[in-house]
Amino acid sequence: MKCSEHPDAPHGFMRDASHSAGRYVCECEFWEPQGVKIHAGPYGEAWIAQEEPVAHVYRIEANGRPCVAWDDASGIEVNAKLYAAPRKWVGLTDEEIDTAWRSVDYTVPYNQFRIGVARAVEARLKEKNYD
To answer: What would the mean pLDDT of 22-46 be, rounded to a whole number?
Structure first.
């Protein structure tokens, strides 16, 4: 992998990562510019999102666990699963699309059929991406 040319990117040998990968691994491979992330969508689209802090650590417990306070906790439920970054979108294979297509009753009027296909694809995508 080629090193980052960004002027703020750190460079240095990462021993454990290099050993695991079987090649030279530089610190810059895991670095991103502060405040800006480039996101890629499932269809090749890309966008830049300005990152803002959403929480802060106000104390570290004796066991090493951080105590975190959310800057805006509206919409967060107790025991909600929180992720550090969006999970990678998982699309459907041709076989899964074909299975969804064939799962819909083709004897119904076309309007119902096309909505049924869309719902079958939507259900499969939800299974793969949100469970």
So the answer is: 66
pTM: 0.38
Asked if residue 60 and residue 103 are part of one domain, the reply reads no
128 alpha-carbon distance from chain centroid: 13
Alpha carbon distance 68, 62 (integer Å): 15
Whether 20 is covered by a domain: the verdict is yes
As to burial, measured by CB atoms within 10 angstroms (0-12 exposed, 13-18 middle, 19+ buried), residue 29 is middle
Task: Say how many domains are in the chain.
Answer: 2
> Looking at the structure, do residues 98 and 60 belong to the same domain, yes or no?
no
